[in-house]
Amino acid sequence: MTDVLDAPSSPLGKPIKRTEDPRFITGEGRYVDDIKLQSTAHMAILRSPYAHANIRSIDTSAAKAMPGVLAVYVGADIPYNPMPMAWPAGGSAGIQNNVSTPRTLATDSVKWTGEGVAAVVAETEAQAFDALEAIQVDWEPLPAVVDAEKAIADGAPQLHENAPNNIVFEWNVGDKAGTDAAVDSAEVVVRQRIVNQRLIPNPMEVRGNIGWYNPGTDEYTIWMSSQTPHIQRLLLAAFVMGIPEHKIRCISPDVGGAFGTKIFCYPDYALVLFASKHLGGRPVKWIESRRENYQSTIHGRDHITYLEIAGTRDGTVTGLRVKTLANLGGRLSTIGPGIPTTLYARVLSGCYKIPNVYAEVTGVYTNTTFVDAYRGAGRPEATYVIERAMDLFAAEIGMDRAELRRRNFIQPDQFPYENPSGLGTASGGAKIYIDSGDYEPAMDKALATVGYADLAARKAEAKTRGKLMGLGLSTYIEVCGVAPSKWIGAVGEGWGAAMWESSNIKVHLTGKVVVTMGTQPQGQGHETTYAQVIADALGVPMEDVIVQHSDTQGTPFGYGSYGSRTSSVGMTAAVKAADKIKDKARRYAAHMLEASPDDIEIDGAEYRVKGSPERKKTFQEIAFALDLAFDAPEGMEPYLDETAYYDTPNCTWPFGTHIAVVEIDEETGVVELVRYVAVDDVGNKINPMIVDGQLHGGIAQGVGQALWEEAVYSDEGQLLSGSMLDYALPKASMLPHFELDQTVTPSPVNPLGVKGVGEAGAIASTAAVANAVIDALGPLGIRHLDMPYTSRKVWAAIQSAKGGQL
Amino acid sequence: VGEHISMTVNGMPRDLEVEPRRLLVQALREDMDLTGTHVGCDTSQCGACTVHVDGKAVKSCTMLAVQADGATVTTIEGMASPGDGGALHPLQTAFWEKHGLQCGFCTPGMIMTAADLLGRNADPSDDEIRDALEGNICRCTGYQNIVAAVKAAAVAMRA
Question: Could you tell me whether strands A317-329 and A356-365 are parallel, antiparallel, or unpaired per DSSP bridges?
Fold first, then answer.
């Protein structure tokens, strides 16, 4: 790959401006709410004001009589199945028979504030909202519980009859006996309870759908702001609506950010399709409000963890034992149980060679919005645990934090590395390995950039200004590019299905190339990066390649874009499709040039006879001739049109070191992030400008978690942080200029050598900032503080440490 | 029940009937098909709906359409030069060149707010740019390349 990356004519590896941008900078993007179909009716959803209540009855008669109202629906009107739960906690959890997922509309009870209970369709959106006010629900409020630890305690309100003690699953991974022995006999053990608080993901575009039933063909079409249109077609057809899969078409137009929230199968998809059919084929549009987005689109994180890290006083970590309660909400989202198991506990040991790792994870129902994958999905939580643990251990034995990390890194000659926290525990030999890495150079580069050696002097200088300076490291790894289908089959995790990707390439008579794929962009610039890859592979100009996606009619099946899998899995499928195109073009060139296919050499778009370079055809000439097919040889089909499906043999493992420097005002507790240095190794880069942009955004989100963001419920289950007024998102003035650098360790897993970058920033940065804040507070004797580090919380901690009265 | 209002939008005179409760952003998006102005929240926090009203940046979700009666309004669709070629505004060019957008949803509002800033301050510092974007939220970029884009546009506009 290296020679290709260095080739001056190739667009691969270049910071090329995005081809999708002209429509976005001129206001010509087309998000769901921008699509207007003739005779569209508008839907609004009535949501529960109670966190836990039984529905005695619903009176819709007044609403039905309101101006412009076309229909009012309640749960009993809709014959569909509940939403599917598609990614169980596999392995030790066994069969999960305590699943509760949302119905299209709630029927008997509600489990969180915001669960949908009725829907109005009207001529206008305003009329629909007006009519919601006229629906009378006779509620029987019930006691609620929002905290996972309280939910599993004796006497807690019970949410579901099939889930005693509100437990969704109990799951464990790793060697319990070995880890117990290692931890219980260790020279040093450090224990800490840590909370990874609940977050609201906040893509700038909320969710929304337009459903259209065509009575003439008995087919459904849905325009949806989704990361996974193909999966939604499958889930809606086969699991929810009970109709043939080929009778639904799913289209994701421009998606205004997603961060995981748009992976899942939401009740409103089924609702707009049901309503359109009921109304004889009028399109029905539903666009979420931001308040609804906060209440009824998934949340992220929300773990309570008890960690124990054990080792020797000279700095060898020998054991990690972790118990985590994962709050999954009032009902389960589509892959909720998979996040704290597969994507969290199986990677808890991070980049360290820890011989004994054991984790127990308990999934818990509470009267809160469902929790599922939010940028990083399990891996930020794992990184937070292990990176806080390493700092706690270093502090306990009095060793420099960087030195402790250095001593425990998996070494470059130890790859492929099978970690002890469960990646290799699948049956049938279907294991996942950490593919490659070289962790010290990235850390050394980051330490040098930030001036780690001068830290003590700079802390002293800051102190003279009334500031407590702290520096935090996060030497993260992440697993992305999910996932080998064999492994998924063996462990029973991961959509309960394969996770390959697909791509089709067609070359038109005029030499123009159309690439379609099963993945689904949400702002990552896939139209540009796929074009870079395929222009390079076929030797054609980038402007001759158009990339199409997002419509199940016209693109091959794909599992979608999340988990930083598009480049490593999806683009590899495209490369393989291009290989097939080139192979056929080579065979046809051989026919045209009266040579053997083995004697045809390919140089960009030129197909030449070896040793006779004047005998050649261009790719475009071949495409033209093969499209006309006047002279196609016996057995060769006309046209260049090839599809490839790619099942990755392993996941990919980006890594790096992020360092945050904070200053805390000792008088007010205000935390300022003053520097942020990130050295990331994401393998080869298709477009380094886009890679940097992904890192910037991920870092900002992770910093947001550490310093400001928190979804807060009252004890009764009201979402107190229920609007952008109350939920503290990072703004431009709150963030510094991020200083990025890199090392490059190409992934051996795929031909492009790419690893994935969509989540790395969010995975690394939270722990870096947290460790910096605790480092700053360390001199006061503060060993740990839970996020977010609001000025109020930090001020209180400082006062408490100083023995003050609060 | 409609109120008759007139305004000049992107250089074109527009007359329309609106409900008194109709927001300016609804009138732009629904009645005039100018869907480049986006709605990202319901509390006037996100700034995705920012347009210019009589030359000043305004969150169009925070203003009734009837309040814009008689006003001159510019939306993202009016930023490029009209007519053949449609040369991009320097801010549009800079956002493209500096990768100042990812999903693109906040971008129209960012560009409109930044244009307001550059109208008042032709050579803003990084901090001044970050402060000026206080009312515009982006969840994709971490703002870094937005700041770079506004700086680059300022340079281009001073030239």
Answer: parallel
Q: Are B99 and A693 within 8 A, CB to CB?
A: yes
CB A783 within 8 A of CB A485: no
Residue range A284-289: average pLDDT? 98
Please tell me if residue B12 touches chain A, with a CB cutoff of 8 Å. no
Tell me whether residues A732 and B80 touch, CB distance under 8 A: no
CA distance B47 to A574: 38
pLDDT in tens, B74-116: 999 999 987 656 799 999 999 999 999 999 999 999 999 999 9
CA dist A592 and A587 (Å) reads 9
Q: What is the DSSP string of A462-531?
A: HHHTTEEEEEEEEEEE--BS---HHHHHHHT-STTS---EEEEEEE-TTS-EEEEES---SSS-HHHHHH
Cβ within 8 Å, pair B129-A732: yes
Other Cβ atoms closer than 10 A to A242: 11
Residue B61 to residue B109: CA distance in whole angstroms:
12
Distance CA B37, CA B68 (A): 16
Weakest mean pLDDT among A1-5, A71-75, A426-430: A1-5
Residue A6: pLDDT band by 50, 70, 90 thresholds?
Answer: very low
Do the beta carbons of residue A771 and residue A474 sit within 8 Å?
yes
Could you give the C-alpha distances from A477 to A124, A134, A383, A759, in angstroms and in order?
Answer: 49, 53, 8, 11
pLDDT, tens digit, for every residue of A653-666?
999 999 999 999 99
User: Of how many residues is chain B composed?
Assistant: 159
Could you tell me if B99 lies within 8 Å of chain A, comparing CB atoms? yes
pLDDT given for residue A5 in this prediction:
44
Beta strands at A356-365 and A167-174: parallel, antiparallel or unpaired: antiparallel
Overall pTM > 0.95: yes
Task: Tell me the CA distances in angstroms from A701 to A336, A376, A557, B83, one per residue in order.
Answer: 20, 10, 31, 40
User: Hey, is A589 helix, strand or coil?
Assistant: helix
The values of phi and psi at residue A584, to 5°, are -70, -40
Asked if A710 and A197 count as a contact pair (C-beta separation under 8 A), the reply is: yes
Task: Inspect the interface and report whether the beta carbons of A697 and B141 lie closer than 8 Å.
Answer: yes
Whether pLDDT at A428 is above 80: no
pLDDT digits over A723-736, tens only?
Answer: 999 999 999 999 99
